[in-house]
Amino acid sequence: MKLDVYGDTLCALVSAAALASTGNDVVLHVPDMPLLQALSAGECPFREPDLPELLLEQQQEGRLVFVSVDQPPADDVSVVFISLAPSALPLANDIVRRFATLPSRSWLLVNQSTFAVGTTDSFTAVFQQSLPEKSDARFVSVSLPDVLQEGAALQNFTRPAHFVLGCNNAAAEKLVKEVLRPFNRRRDGILTMLPSEAEFTKLAINGMLATRLSFMNEMANLADVFGVDIEKVRQGLGADGRIGDAYLYPGCGFGGLSFSRDLMSLVDTLASSGVASGLLHQVLAINEHQKEVLFRKLWQHYDRRLENKTVTIWGAAFKPNTHRIENAPALRLIDALLAQGASLRIHDPQAMPTLAHRYMGHPNIEYFNDEYDAAKGADALMLVTEWKCYWQPDFIKLKSIMKTPLLLDGRNIYGPEYVREHGFEYYGVGRG
Amino acid sequence: MDLSTTALAEAEKQHKWEAMSATDNTLKLTEHANKLLTVHLSELFEKDAARFEKFSRRVGPLLIDFSKQRVDETALQLLSDAADAADLGGWIKQLFAGDKINSTEGRAAMHWLLRSPSTEDAKSVELKGVHQQLQKMETLVAKIHAGQWRGFAGDTITDIVNIGVGGSDLGPLMCCRALEDTAPESAKGLNIHYVSTMDGSQVSHLLRQLAPQTTLFIISSKSFSTVDTLYNANTARAWLERAFGDDPALIRCHFLGVSSKADAMLEWGIPEENQLALWDWVGGRFSVWSAIGLPVALKIGMDNFRQMLEGAHRLDQHFESAPWTENIPVLMALIGVWNTNYLHIGAQAILPYDGRLKYLPSYLSQLEMESNGKSVRRDGEPVEGQTCPVVWGDVGPNAQHAFYQLLHQGTQAVTCDFIAPASRYQEAVHGEAAVELVYQHELALANCLAQSRLLALGEAALPAGEQLPGYKRYRGNQPSSTLLLDTLTPFSLGMLMAAYEHKVFTQAVIWGINPFDQWGVEMGKKIATETLAHIRGEATGSVSDSSTNGLVALIRSGLNEQQ
Known about the structure:
heterodimer, A: 432 residues, alpha/beta, Rossmann fold, 6-stranded parallel β-sheet, 17 helices, B: 563 residues, 3 domains, 6-stranded mixed β-sheet, 5-stranded parallel β-sheet, 22 helices, 11 strands, 10% strand
């Protein structure tokens, strides 16, 4: 099949690469010029596992082509994916209007972007308004919400547990299912509903996950007060079949571009539609507060004076296996520590260039390529993002190079007793 | 300048050549007043179609219309002579030279210096100190606005409680409310509260709602010995200690101090880094321009706070340089003297037609009545006539449903200051609601103008030929000034406040009194200490008068029953 994909999001790249890999001819229309140039040069700015390799491979095979957003789809293309950033709705509408002026055909638009609920349906009206008289073109839009998780995005697309498809047209449903067939083999995992229901499902999923995390963080803070270990409680909780064990890890808050953004968009949607969002508002507030949990522990540990203290941060990306720092807890921590006059030594396998760009030459931040160099002379070590390389450090070496052996574990990845046996003072999140 | 005011200024020059003793002048004023006392304001307007042009002045965004005062050109000229006779020019020079014109306390009165711009070669130690403290304020405000001032447990501060009374309360409270529409984005998450009363009603109410983790207290007391403030501060400290235990870091994280007494702050536990200074050459009721204004800066941001200082400075320059009959604060003062001493009006109402100026009447009550509520002259002799009238007021539209009845049909003569911004609701914060709100403001302005008109003209303001029964009649002839600001901004509010400050000073010069002390409020505090001992049963004997004895006995029996 010949497919066009519009977008510059991770979802756009993953969809284009995956669809090309199953034999389709895919043209990816990239609105962002620097990104288009990078992709054309065989580079992939998203450090997703296997994605750069697959993009390059499909480009070399000739099944994947990168073009500008202005280039119209070829005459034999009628299935188009749109996967733009939430702020790019005007561009999406432009693209739809342009389709109306092209030679008549039956368009199928698959919207993967997270726009407001109801947007997918609204594209039909946009198309009809721009349609020249006497045209016999037809247009159907469906919603296929982006539920990819950064760090495992390609796998999420090619081997999903299910797809949520918002569609109210039988022919369109058949066609989308055909496009998705290679990824939907084990069993039929496509859940069909109305487009606006699919859009809403996407927001609700994020709201639910965030609620679980904030709930657990609140439990962790209580565990600190009662002096019990939240890790035990978490396992007991997750073992209950009604609850399950996903998204129950307490820690120093969640971040990420889309997760936080979608949640805020859900809160805004509720607010502007006159429904008070008491719960989700609190979920976000708890999360923002939780991002500073390590700061508060350090602040109390050093008797509310952090001037001239040296703090090492391990991990700044909003989660492992990404270079992205949007809404990352590390940012809140860095800002808080700098404001109190502390000096920072930071290590992150991928996020340091992004971080350095954000804090442009701040005199109190140093970046290190080696995590032990970063810990030299430190008054405290904060583990913020649980990259695999941090899970089992050489504690003997660490203790010998740090000024004060103080470890603040924002992801509860260390065994408190083991760490304390090595002469460290240890603070986790909700570990008594 | 139009012809009439030029003529006035010319006549003033001429007049100065005539050697005239104060007594002569007083006699002439009395004579002239007796003539005007029989003339109704409606006649003055009838006779002269250009009263507004003659009797209104404008400086920057501030316009004063005093054409509805019962004055004419002769009265103004005689009053201006009275200012000369009292050597107002000399006194203004002394004020701005930093002379110790607060004679009973041996201090200068340099509130004007608090709003002087910094010059690179600032020679004055005081001015350097002023700008150092402004800089310190700016750093504090930036840290709190950034959410980086941390409580004991490490939380961001969301609530500020200003503990202070008198000048440490009324000024900040008034300005915060007046300028809240100008609050920058960075101040949106911050709530500012005020605690002043010694009885604990405000503090107990607030502490029930606030979280100790996120609350920062400002203890504002020039002397740092005001019991009202210290009792409230101790209650706040005990509240924090119940939450966190007694720890020296507690005060460092949750208290700022503003005072001229660094030692007293330190002794209470406030470290140097948390202290902001003021000086004994600033009176409490003139101190909102200093670090006492910290809550204002926290509410409206430091840029806006500096705008407020600039507005006041602009008016200082005007006061220092303009001839009396062009000088807004001097004119306000002369009209006040005319009303008090020659028309025998003993009450002045402050009537803002803008809810944001809700606390302006109490602020001005303090400024005027604490400054000029005096009956002994600088030379120790009793004053001859009346000094400061009773000053009170309320938001005009609300007062219309409360005490305007007395203004219109009562037996008291009252002079009024109507205060309003010409335009309102232009700020982005009002969004789509601006349309409806502008309608409401227009309604308020219409009421403002209608009330002052009816008060002045009485029945002459009504359609002719209507015969009304006695109880429906409007006597009129109640004089008023209207102070119109282009818009209510930090700059224009600064000007307005400085205008009243200098009005008060000018009146004190003419009355020969010291406006900068307040001995009348001292003795009550002392007697209260004795009385407290009696109420607590720690003193023996009786408290002298039978009324107090009876009341103390009743209170004590109530206390005993509770125990």
